[in-house]
Structure formats: structure tokens, C-alpha cells
Amino acid sequence: MLLGIWQWLSSLRLAPSYLFPGPMDVFRSLREMAADGTLLISIRLSMGRMIIGYSISIVGGLAIGLASARSRLFKETVGSLIMALQSLPSVCWLPLALIWFGINEMSIMVVVILGAIFSIAIATESAIRNIPPIYQKVGRVLGARGFVFARDILFFAALPELIGGLKIGWTFAWRSLMAAELIRADVNGVARILQTGREFNDIAMMLAGMIVILVIGLTVDLAVFGTLERKIRRRWGLEK
Amino acid sequence: MLERYAAFFMKIGFLEVSKSFIQDNNAEIKVVQALLPLSLSVSEGEFICIIGPSGCGKSTLLNLLAGLEKPDTGRILVDGVTVNGPGSERILVFQEPGLMPWMTVAHNVEYGWKLQGVPAAERCERVKKYLKMVHLSQYAGTLPHQLSGGMKQRVSIARALALEPKVLLMDEPFSALDAQTRDILHDELQRIWQETGTTILFVTHNIREAVYLADRIVIMTAAPGSIKNVVHVPFAHPRKKSSTELSAFSAILHDEIKQEVDKVAAKELGREWLADNKPPIPGETSADVGAGI
Ligand SMILES: Nc1ncnc2c1ncn2[C@@H]1O[C@H](COP(=O)(O)OP(=O)(O)OP(=O)(O)O)[C@@H](O)[C@H]1O
Ligand SMILES: [Mg+2]
Predict the structure, then answer these.
(1) What's the predicted TM-score (pTM) here?
(2) Which of A103, A238, B127, B234 could cysteine-pair with A233, CB 3.0–4.6 Å?
(3) Which domain holds residue A126?
(4) Which chain B residues are within 8 Å of A237, Cβ to Cβ?
(5) Cβ-based contacts of A143 with chain B (< 8 Å)
(6) Class for the domain spanning B1-82+171-293
């Protein structure tokens, strides 16, 4: 339906087609990129950065969140610092990261990690605080302590709420990565398609790139997190 | 004084144990004295029931012994060793089932063993044995939210029994169950207790239940809690619920406990309560306390 309107609008030729390409042009551009392998390579590069960066964010975010839920001192020191840092868009770290870590993958990874880690930490803390006390008491009575207690009891008891935080973390990480890839003209990745499109004044290619970014974002959101969330809620009996 | 020394040689000893809580509800911070210093000794294999008005600190007493709370003053000894945190030889059954919703029934029951590194095959055997005991063999693979309230509580009891603790603490474990299930579990509990020689501390509001199960009944005063009286129940186990002796004994105890319950009610209702000359209040007094075992 929307595609139809788009096609109709572009066929009116209100603007020259190189400024306002129709869906057919965009689709052609997509197919070309798929055919010469650019698409696959770009996606693989970006997703690779996401998977590594986001995994590190999860581990770090869970650890920081756990520490601030369990220790008042930690919350009032590191926790409040994180609250403040969270309002800084993570791509603002890029210039600093470039100097610290050099012009390499590492600096992009830092932006991705910082994009997600704080929101995951904050969500973890709140999810742990909201755990019904009975699970913690039962866990302790049955003999769970220290790391095992956190892994077996806290993590799972917090999971229904935590999964929402992980999802938001993913979205932040993805946005941060795109921003970083756009600024760093020297690296390949999905956002590179937009840059190349701009260099060749190929708006169809730019639109194709945007669609790729959107589709990846939506797919992970709905297919991965949506499914996970539903599975968890069903197992916990929070849904019919 | 003798009590003090006895505590070291008994299975369980409370020595001048007191506990207060700081209640911080944003607007005001107040200190609530839950338990006044109290001492109590329990010998090995004894079945103790604890009765007292609501809010008198019965759950606090069990939580302290389970190691979930620390006493403000005094010491709690088990086998002559001071309690310092939870331990697998002391297992507490809560009023609510508290099954882990992400684990199946079987996983819930075996979790304590898993923590102790017992191999899977052996755990499986035990799960079977204890689920059978609470008549839930068919439900090993079920998730907790698919069970009824009574079934959940039975799983929670199986989970505690499966650890074969030397000291079993039960905080109104049957109060949410229907009368038939409760009858079955009373008999089961009595049998398990006789077979295993476990020391049991059992909190209840139900005098008949206490008289049916206990060797001794600890009657607590209204809050702040302390021990008002310890009553020996002079009947041999196994007991018969229908026995007239038990009924007569319950009736005597009933008056003693009612005094404490009345104190709570008088404090709540003030002069109204005195003027009306003790009308029954629902849930706590005469009709309910003795009835419906
Ligand atoms: N974690 C806590 N924080 C603050 N106050 C508490 C806490 N636990 C218990 N209390 C207070 O201690 C007192 C005793 O509570 P407790 O739960 O031991 O009573 P109880 O005898 O078990 O009552 P019931 O028969 O209703 O279960 C109450 O006044 C209660 O408000
Ligand atoms: Mg209680």
C-alpha cells in the first residue's frame, strides 16, 4: 500500500528521479549490492561489531547493575556517575576513543559498548530491586551463595523485567554503531552504503542503505527480543 | 540460669535472643521491637509448635533460626554452634510456596541437592520419592504456574523434605491448604517426623493442629513477642485427630491463648472493645482458633 503510493508519487515526476527515486530504483540498487556482495560484507561487518560490543555491554551492564543493586556505596558512587553519563549520546565518545585507542575497530567498539552498557546496568539494577523477596529467601535457605546465587536466582528472577532493558540496550547499541560508522569515513559497514550513495549522488542507494538499517533493527527487535520476551512470559506464567 | 547452660547441649538453643526492625516508609522511620529477649531450648527430635497472636514475632523467630536474619542480642545455637547464616541442615518452609517459576516442579525439588553437587541420577531418585510423598508424582515436569495453590505448597514441602534437614522449620505451611489435603499432610508429616527423627519447629494459628502434632507448644505473648508459656502435650504419637482427649486439651489451651489475642484486639479497638465486652473478631478468636483442623 505505502509502496504503491510511493511508486505513484515518484511516477508523477514532481522532482527529478535522481532526487526522488521510486521503489523500483531502490529495489534495483538493493539487488545490485546483493549481487556484488557489498550488502553481505557490510552486514557481516556491522553485525560482527554489534555482537562483540553488545555482548561486552551485557556482561558489564549486568555486573554494574548487580553491584549497584547490592551495594549502597557502589550505587551512590559509580551508580550516580553512570546515571549522569547515560544522558551523553555515546557517539560523543568517538573523538576521545580515536585518540585513546587509535583509528581502528577498537574505537568503534567503545562507542557501541558505551551506547548499551549504561542502560543495561540501570535496567538490571531496577529489575533486581523488584524481585519478590521470597525468591531470594528461598534461594538462600536452599543454600545458594555468592556467584551461584546471582546466576541461579537473581538473574532468572529478574529476567522478565530485565529482557526489556536488554532490548533497549540493543537499540541504543545499534544507533551508536550507525552514528560511529557514519562519522568514520574510513571503515566499511552498513552505514558505509549511505556514505557511498552520497559520494555518487545516488539517492536510491542511500534509501536502500536506510532500508537495510531499518530492517535489521526491526528484525532483531521483533524476531529476537519479541520471541524471547514472549517465551519468558509464558514460562513464568505471566501470560495466559 | 540452668536454661543458659542447657542451651549448649540441646539440639537448638535460643539464648536471650531479641530482634527489632527499622521500618523506613519515607515519611517516618520507626523501630519495631519484634522479639523481646527470649530463651528456649529444644531437644533432638522434638516437635515444637509455636502459637501466638498475629505480629508477635513467630516468623521472625524462625527466620532467625534459619539464618535469614541476625539477632540484635543473644545467640542462637544448633548443636552447640552459633547460627551464622543459612545452612542446609536447617530448612525453612514459608507460608507462601515460593517456587521458582522458571524451574519445573522437579527442578525446584532437586535444586538444593544440585547446589550440593549430588549427581543427577541420585537427584532424580530423590525427586521421585519426595514428590510421591506429597502425591504429586505426575507433576514432575510441570511448571509452577500450572499448579493450584495447594499443589504448589505441597511441592514446597517436598522441596524442604528432600534435603532431609536435621532441623525443619515450618511457618504456617498448611494455612493455605484445603482441609482434606491438610489432613493428609498432617499424617504424612507426623510419619516422616517419626521415621527421620527430624527436629521440627512449626508455627501455626490453629490450636488443634498444634495439639495434634506437637510434643511441646510454645505460646507467645502479644507483640513485642516473648514466651508466655511452654505447654507439654502429654499424648503419645501417633495421635488420632478424633480423640476426645485432644479436644479437651485444645479447649484448655484455647483460653490461655485467647488472653493474648484479646490483648491485641483491645489495643486495636481501644475502649470500644472493652465496652462491647469482647465480641468475637473474625479470623483470630474463639471460633477460628480452635476449629477446622
Ligand atoms: N523485614 C521486616 N521489616 C520490618 N519489620 C518487620 C519485618 N519483619 C517483621 N517485621 C515486624 O516484626 C513484627 C513481627 O513480625 P512477624 O512476621 O514475625 O509476626 P508473626 O508472628 O509471624 O505474625 P503472623 O502470625 O501474622 O504471621 C511485626 O510487627 C512486623 O511488622
Ligand atoms: Mg508470620
Answers:
(1) 0.84
(2) A238
(3) 24-235
(4) 101, 143-146
(5) 86-88, 112, 115-116
(6) alpha beta
